[in-house]
Amino acid sequence: MTTPAAVRTVLVVDDHRIFAQMLAASLDAEPDLRTVATAHEARTALELAALHRPDLVVTDARLADGDGVALARRLVDELSAAVVVVLTAFADAGLVERAARAGASAVLAKDGDLPGLLAVLRSARRGAFEVGPGLDAPAPSVEDRLAALGLTPEDGALLRLLAAGMDTEGLARELDVSPQRARAHVDRIADVLGVRGAADVVAEAVGQGLVRIGRG
Predict the structure, then answer these.
(1) Which residue of 46, 72, 133, 211 sits 20 to 30 Å from the alpha carbon of 20, by its own alpha carbon?
(2) This prediction's pTM
(3) Range of 20's domain?
(4) Nearest to 71 by CA among 59, 79, 80
(5) CA 62 – CA 88 distance, rounded (Å)
(6) What was the pLDDT predicted at 216?
(7) Are residues 112 and 196 in the same domain?
């Protein structure tokens, strides 16, 4: 039987069999979602995912034979179009950040309500990331903070050199530019940060979490 285009297929992964069965039944009661399989361990999940090529995977963060976030990364890598949603029973900001880095599209609390999960399953897309109620969103990366200020990765590299104690002459040698150009680069970053001089650039960058003092 062919699946209507409007229906999104789902693989449910949870080592609590009753929970997996109840979630699958709830999804099957929706007109636009259909569970193609349930798995109770990461190994079986990978096998079933390869067999069924689901549109969506809902996985617990902790599985009897492994880490649900590591499974999410494998699924994102191996299924070119699948969206992975991670459920967790623990309000762990570190787990949320790992899930985001793994390519998951959402992390939701396992004790949340079904309408909230259904809404996420309908809206989730690859490349986007959503954090459900009761969970802390991951802190933005240094790259994200730089970009929000209009600074480039190259600006970030220069900030790290300044924070390591390098002067203008050292910057010029390291960047293979003239001292005047190195100084202009520092001045431009200073303008963006709203300060003057290399010392204030470093202090402001440290205060904003863009760099750390020293080479560590």
Answers:
(1) 133
(2) 0.64
(3) 8-131
(4) 59
(5) 8
(6) 43
(7) no
